[in-house]
Structures are given as C-alpha cells and as structure tokens.
Specification:
3 helices; about 65% helix
Length: about 90
Amino acid sequence: SGVAGPAVQSLMTQRVDETEQGRLQGAMSIFLGLTGLVAPICFTQVFSWSTTGAGRTLGQPGLSMVCGAALLLAALLAAYFFARPTAPHGHD
C-alpha cells in the first residue's frame, strides 16, 4: 500500500461525490487497518503449515508467496474491470 496507496486513493476519490469524501477515507482506513491485522496472521500460518511440522508439512516454503501473488492478481483483475475511466458529464 505504500507505493499503490496514493494512486488507489486518487482513483477512488474521483468516483465519489465531494460530500462523501470523509466517509470514503474512513472506510479506506478501516480496511487498511484490518488487512494490517489479519494478513500477517494468515500468511505466517500458511508459511508455518507449508514448511514445518512432522507429517503436516507440504515442503513448499514458497506457498505463502504464491498465495500473495494470487491475491495480487485478483486485485489487478478487479482494478482492470472496475477502475475504468468514467465518461465526462454531458458526453456519451
């Protein structure tokens, strides 16, 4: 989010009315906080499950990176389909 955050924030604020900007910024902060809480827990569990534990290991230490790449690909596809430029008002 450090690199993409300002660009995503700019895209989102362009699609929301001026009276809703505060609500949008609050929602974005909530989601950023939740991902900062949940993601490290989930990815450390996936990494642990894929590398350690007698009889429970997959022997794939890169599995957490593959999961992260899959989530990034899903986000890229969502951005491609949902973040298209809108037509200026008065033009079709």
